[in-house]
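Bench log. Compound arrived from synthesis this morning; before running ITC I wanted a structural hypothesis for how adenosine-5'-diphosphate sits in the protein. Inputs:
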Amino acid sequence: MMNYSIGLDIGGTKVAAGIVDEEGNIFSEIKLPSKTNDKESMFEQVLEALKQTLEDFKGKKEEIIGIGIGLPGKVDRENGIAVFQNNLPWANFPLKERLLEHYPEMKIHIDNDVAVAAYGEHFLNKVNKETLFTYITLSTGVASASVLNNELIKGNGFSGELGLIPVVSELENNKLRPLEKCTSGLAIEAYGRKYFEDQSLTTKDIFDKYYEEDEKAKEIIASVSKSLAYGFVSIISLLDPEKIVVGGSVAVHHPVLIELIKKELEELLIEAQKDAIDRISVSENSDAPLIGAASRLFF
Ligand code: ADP
């Protein structure tokens, strides 16, 4: 018998749901836009996503053991509560309890979105249990999550906040800035808008200009990759992960950024650390969060 579980990736833009087997295959995946007007419409949309993916599923429904959920911000894993999400209309929303009213037979696990993406990459890359694995996301924000023995390194609950580490930013007169403030998708967009004096530019536009060899865009991306490299030095020096996967839209669409970071690392790391550079790779599966959320039910 094959076990299945439902993965749910809930974000401020979309809700994705899919049924995942123990090998990480996804079935009947569906994506719906988030309805962020109020908490009940948002919850209705989550129910709708679950309903549609279950209706589409051709396998045996009794082999579905539970629902694994990833959502941004702060979550209370033990009690299944969405504590605080910047871009969702939920505050202390009892997500697990509300879902159990509709799916009383299901096991339900909720976790943070960076954590589920880390679990997903860990699962998809078939990383050994004993391997210290770090996932870094370069997206709207910047964060990391590390996994050892199939479990997240949680600390007191706030570990992995790579985006809060102060780093030097060339674009800001070499001042120290929290890494996220000078390297995230939002930061790249803000730098671009300021330098090109055009409020309509997106992160993607800045990269397009970079590929066209625009000098200003090159300066922005050089500064961003240098600041990011300092963050990577911190992670490598503290944890020396045996494998690092970088995900998030900014990294996935622009692997060149990772190449630039690696070049900087050649300068910044000491000789004995340099082998870490070859252990860094870019995510190859955009469904990692969904798979990671679902995979927690298999442990
Ligand atoms: P989230 O932050 O919700 O997890 P993403 O990983 O998709 O979502 O990251 C969103 C960020 O990625 C935004 O800052 C957006 O501008 C940026 N982004 C999305 N697509 C691209 C692209 N093709 N090129 C550069 N940046 C992108």
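What the model suggests: Residues 11, 139-140, 185-186, 189, 202-204, 207, 248-250, 253 surround adenosine-5'-diphosphate (CB under 6 Å). The chain has ten helices and 15 strands.
ITC booked for Thursday regardless.
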